[in-house]
């Protein structure tokens, strides 16, 4: 409205000489006129020039006297013709009016003091102060000397009023074109772009808060674990093949072909391609022998080992399948000790419940060196788990087809107040290592655990489906804190 008024007025008139008067005339708030003028000026629709005016305004005290009369007048009016004692006069007008008004009334020779009483000296007087204040209120001219006197009495103050004089600017138009913020394909095709006014970039605009990505708790914990392994001098194994052959997943690990884990109830087998084509033939031959009739000090399992069973493709059920590939590769070169780790996904054909999923992540560590003992395994487990903040460990004898001895790892959970199983470990069997071609005295100690378990404990999640899978609340990803494994 203010904008239309200004632009409309300038179409017919040369100038708006005074924005204050203009505002009054059109009944628009002057602040609004000021804001619109600034904006129109910035776009060159008008040119404005500052104008300043000194104006006098009454203070609260001044306003009061303009209404009720000056204190000197109040004092004068309270004096009856027969005179009044000072005490009585003060009581009548009140102490403050008396204090302020008595002096000026006396100076004006409106009153005189007798021995005991105060008398009027004049019949009628004129309340000049009230008159002056009313004149100033009405914006009428007043003598400079009078102004100075009223200012001294703090009944009026000067104020600077700021406004504009306004004329047409170089981009004057009756209506402001809305500056375009987008140049579209249609604008270009229709030629509308020629007349378009484009909005200036506002480099000071705050902009939208950047919506960055958020790491899943599993990724945060994985990063911490990876750092721990790297600090301990372990190298990461390549785990980028989810599809594995039964051979590397089971046979190479001395897991017999009748083992229940090799059933389709426990393992996802692939339909297409259902079998692998490439296996290291001479090594396969040694594995077949060790399963069937043993060797390397073993009696074997004594069954007919079938190549077709080994060829079957599956989704790897543990990352130990990768370990077996890596150890075999190691055996093909002159021996050098190695420390390997991996953290990646594995798959098991399991009924999903609050603690089980058909796919999860395994953390696996192994050390391969000459003459390692169970003591070395226990030592490295203490080192590894204490870096996770688990200082109290216990081990329980267990069974894995590929390790002997095998140990389940338990850690004392302060929160639960009990020992909880946190992983599995062991020393790889000679039946597994020797057919690969590793030297006789090379031992491999290894352990594995799930990534989900420690993550759930760290983030206080008690249903695995809240952590992983399609039911995960994305808000959780945004809100969950950084992972502070083992920091005390
Ligand atoms: N592969 C074992 C599992 O899936 C873990 C493990 C790794 C055990 C290495 C011993 C040695 O539970």
TrEMBL record:
Record organism: Spinacia oleracea (Spinach)
EC main group: ligase
UniProt main location, coarse: cytoplasm
Ranges where the Aminoacyl-transfer RNA synthetases class-II family profile domain occurs: 220-481
Record's subcellular location: Cytoplasm
PANTHER family membership: PHENYLALANINE--TRNA LIGASE ALPHA SUBUNIT, PHENYLALANYL-TRNA SYNTHETASE
Transmembrane region(s): none
Enzyme Commission no: 6.1.1.20
GO MF: ATP binding; metal ion binding; phenylalanine-tRNA ligase activity; tRNA binding
Oligomer status and interactors: Tetramer of two alpha and two beta subunits.
UniProt cofactor(s): Mg(2+)
The protein, known as: phenylalanine--tRNA ligase
Biological process according to GO: phenylalanyl-tRNA aminoacylation
Keywords: Aminoacyl-tRNA synthetase, ATP-binding, Cytoplasm, Ligase, Magnesium, Metal-binding, Nucleotide-binding, Protein biosynthesis
Name of the gene this protein is made from: LOC110800670
GO cellular component, one term: cytoplasm
Chemical reaction(s) catalysed: tRNA(Phe) + L-phenylalanine + ATP = L-phenylalanyl-tRNA(Phe) + AMP + diphosphate + H(+)
């Amino acid at each position: 409205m203010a904008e239309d008024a200004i632009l409309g007025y300038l179409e017919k008139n040369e100038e708006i000489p005074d924005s204050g008067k203009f505002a009054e005339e059109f009944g628009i708030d002057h602040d609004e006129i000021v804001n619109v003028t600034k904006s129109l000026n910035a776009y060159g629709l008008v040119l404005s020039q500052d104008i300043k005016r000194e104006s006098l305004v009454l203070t609260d005290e001044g306003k009061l006297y303009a209404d009720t009369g000056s204190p000197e007048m109040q004092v004068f009016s309270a004096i009856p013709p027969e005179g009044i004692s000072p005490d009585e006069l003060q009581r009548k007008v009140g102490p403050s009016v008396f204090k302020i008004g008595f002096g000026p009334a006396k100076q004006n020779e409106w009153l005189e003091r007798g021995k005991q009483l105060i008398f009027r000296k004049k019949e009628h007087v004129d309340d000049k102060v009230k008159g002056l204040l009313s004149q100033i209120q009405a914006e009428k001219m007043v003598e400079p000397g009078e102004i100075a006197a009223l200012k001294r009495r703090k009944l009026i103050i000067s104020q600077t009023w700021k406004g504009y004089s306004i004329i047409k600017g170089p981009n004057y138009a009756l209506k402001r074109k809305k500056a375009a913020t987008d140049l579209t394909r249609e604008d270009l095709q229709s030629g509308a772009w020629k007349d378009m006014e484009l909005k200036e970039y506002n480099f000071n605009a705050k902009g939208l808060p950047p919506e960055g990505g958020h790491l899943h708790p599993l990724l945060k914990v994985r990063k911490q674990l990876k750092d721990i392994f790297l600090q301990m001098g372990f190298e990461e194994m390549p785990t980028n093949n989810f599809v594995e052959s039964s051979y590397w997943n089971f046979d190479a690990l001395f897991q017999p072909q009748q083992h229940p884990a090799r059933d389709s109830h426990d393992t996802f087998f692939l339909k297409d391609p259902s079998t692998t084509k490439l296996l290291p033939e001479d090594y396969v031959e040694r594995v077949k022998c060790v399963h069937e009739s043993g060797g390397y000090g073993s009696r074997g399992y004594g069954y007919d080992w079938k190549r077709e069973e080994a060829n079957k493709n599956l989704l790897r059920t543990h990352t130990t399948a990768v370990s077996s590939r890596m150890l075999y590769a190691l055996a093909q070169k002159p021996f050098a000790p190695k420390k390997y780790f991996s953290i990646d996904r594995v798959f098991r054909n399991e009924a999903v419940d609050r603690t089980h999923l058909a796919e999860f992540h395994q953390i696996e560590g192994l050390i391969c060196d000459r003459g390692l003992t169970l003591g070395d395994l226990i030592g490295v487990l203490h080192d590894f788990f204490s870096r996770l903040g688990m200082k109290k460990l216990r081990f329980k004898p267990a069974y894995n087809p590929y390790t002997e001895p095998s140990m389940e790892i338990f850690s004392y959970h302060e929160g639960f107040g009990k020992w909880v199983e946190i992983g599995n470990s062991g020393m790889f069997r000679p039946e597994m290592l020797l057919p690969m071609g590793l030297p006789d005295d090379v031992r491999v100690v290894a352990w594995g655990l799930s990534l989900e378990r420690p993550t759930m404990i760290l983030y206080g999640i008690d249903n695995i489906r809240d952590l992983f899978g399609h039911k995960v609340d994305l808000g959780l990803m945004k809100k969950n804190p950084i992972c502070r494994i083992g920091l005390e």
